[in-house]
Design goal:
Radius of gyration: 14 Å
Number of strands: 9
Shape: globular
Order of helices and strands: EEEEHEEEEE
CATH architecture: Roll
Largest sheet: 5 strands, mixed
Distance between the termini: 34 Å
CATH topology: Ubiquitin-like (UB roll)
Number of domains: 1
Strand order of the largest sheet: 4-3-9-7-8
Strand content: 25-35%
CATH superfamily: 2Fe-2S iron-sulphur cluster binding domain, sarcosine oxidase, alpha subunit, N-terminal domain
CATH class: Alpha Beta
Length: about 100
């Protein structure tokens, strides 16, 4: 879901489409947009689960200050997806482990 025409910002300009992989599924994204934007446009709202209670988290601040949107990107944990642009073929995974690779408790 994308906003195609905004009353203040105008129409969405044509952009180059690329493919990303989210939890093994191929998705369409626009080159240069943030990972979180691509996922939200594809109706994905849960990016990680909390350490202890395994509560779902997604976008919160949207400016890279909090850690609610962190995910595993190309095998690297704790990437802030709201400030990281997508790249062709990027592999993005829901983060359900701690940053050091150990299972959540």
């Amino acid at each position: 879901m994308r906003i195609i025409e905004h009353p203040i910002l105008g129409k969405l300009e044509e952009q180059k489409k690329i493919k990303i992989i989210f939890d093994g599924k191929e998705l369409e994204a626009y080159k240069g947009e943030m990972i979180a934007t691509s996922l939200l446009a594809n109706r994905i709202k849960v990016f990680r689960l909390t350490k202890i209670n395994k509560k779902p988290r997604g976008i919160f601040c949207g400016i890279g200050r909090c850690t609610d949107c962190v995910m595993i990107v190309n095998g690297i944990s704790n990437i802030r997806t709201c400030v990281t642009p997508v790249e062709e073929g990027m592999k993005i995974e829901t983060q359900i482990r701690l940053g050091n690779g150990e299972e959540n408790e």
